Amino acid sequence: MHEFLSGLRVLVVEDEMLVLMNIEGALADLGCTAVFAAATADRALALVEAQGFDMAMLDVNLDGKTSYLVADALARRAIPFVFSTGYGAHGVEARFADRPVLRKPYSDEQLGAALFGLLSAGNGIAA
């Protein structure tokens, strides 16, 4: 797989440990060496405040709560992100209709394509 994430900092917000481990492996295959993980919205918000990220991936449902506050914080900082959910685009609030959504379960190739789409969407990150 092409290592297009080389040198980029990625925030992954996911509350399922096995899913998170799979995502981290896929990101490593894509060249990513700086992955920051959070299992709760509060932890993710703290990371957004303390770190700079090139992109993020947000599980919509975090143990019964949503990641929308994290999405709002990322949007305010113009950090591109993709949602992941078992409900597809219908599982995301209408105000985020312009954001890409990965429907669970997804393949490593689908994850890579979604993240490459973030880079290609004119977000100021060189693809």
Write structural notes for this entry.
It is a single chain. The chain is an alpha/beta fold and 127 residues long. The chain contains four helices and seven strands. The protein has helices spanning 17-29, 41-50, 68-76, 108-120; strands at residues 9-13, 34-38, 55-59, 61-62, 65-66, 81-85, 101-103. The strands form two sheets. It has a five-stranded parallel β-sheet, with helices on both faces. The chain has a two-stranded antiparallel ribbon with strand order 4-5. Strand 4 (61-62) and strand 5 (65-66) form a beta hairpin. The chain is globular.
Overview in brief:
The protein has 127 residues and is α/β, with parallel strands linked by helices. It has 4 helices and 7 strands. 35% of the residues lie in helices and 21% in strands.
* Biggest sheet: strand arrangement: 2-1-3-6-7
Give the ordered list of helices and strands: EHEHEEEHEEH
Unreliable residue stretches? 123-127
**Rg from alpha-carbon coordinates:** 13 Å
Content-based structural category: alpha/beta
Tell me the major beta sheet. Answer: 5 strands, parallel
Task: Quote the average pLDDT.
Answer: 90
How many H/I helical runs?
Answer: 4
Proportion of beta-strand residues: 15-25%
